[in-house]
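Quick entry, no commentary yet.
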Amino acid sequence: MILFAKAPIPGSVKTRLAPAHGPARAAELHRAFVADTIGKLCEFRHLADIELHTDILTDAWKEAGVTRQVQTPGDLALKLVHALTGALRAGRPQVMILGSDSPTLPRAHIQRLLGSTAQVALGPCEDGGYYAIACRRTDPRMFAGVEWSTPNVLEQTERAARACGLTVERGDVWYDVDEPEDLLRLAAEPELPYHTRRALRAKGESGG
């Protein structure tokens, strides 16, 4: 299992939260989301290796004690294909890449994708993207034509993967925390993971 995450540099992460909360605050929230997601993935260590792939070298999250790599240069499609294919070629029967924008993603959603027998299983987000992709087979063209950061990412990925002859399945829907309203929704959840809860309380955004 691979977690994709950007280094928590103010001004380069959670930029849609920055106008309302400030770049530094947005970066701290991102740091917390990633820390909690790593912790959640580590609960699956009996099933899979856990790796953190960052966009650049960073000391952030070094306390997590997981294998770390820097993502290959290029656009997101290239980064995904490189990481997915590399893990499969290393002998793993399945590899999953998750994003770091869903700190309260239910464990059952992850489990369902791990249990999928499809060659490509996608965890759909409410905004039209996906929080995870799990693959048993890849193709260099499997993200051809995908317009990233649009509401069409999920459907376009499914279409491109099927065009490569890959079988595709959808998992359970969840939400990303990208916009200020998403942060309010997150803060209203009755149970929050440790780092996210602390980060929200630091600004009084959580009443829990």
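second:
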Amino acid sequence: MAEFRIERDVTIEAPADVVWHTITEPDQITRWFADRVELELKPGGQGYLGFDQHGKQTGTAIVIETVEPPSRFAFRWNRPQDEDPGPANSVLVEFTITARSPERTHLRVVESGLERLSWPDDEKESYTEDHNGGWAQCFDRLVVLFAG
């Protein structure tokens, strides 16, 4: 069985609480990740992430799993987009924030649960490749955001 790992780490020159707000507040999330964000920041809360990809609008519903300021934030998102995300049809996206110093923070994202989905392996492989690259771009934007 193939291993579908989506993990990305970055060190950000900002305090952990600032990084927390940047990854959990809709007006901040639009600065580095999604183009449109609706978010009810509580476990079980609903949300939406909208993306403008090459002039085409796409988006997905999300359900918040974990809110533990300032260290853990997790949500589920899914495909197909017409179903509410749950353990059987979605991927868990989990952020872990670790202060390395008062002004330096380690941020890690892990997407898990892909192996449980009923997609063909080639779709899972494509998703893994796309999302590893996508998180790299998003984390690059975060670094630039805080570099100023």
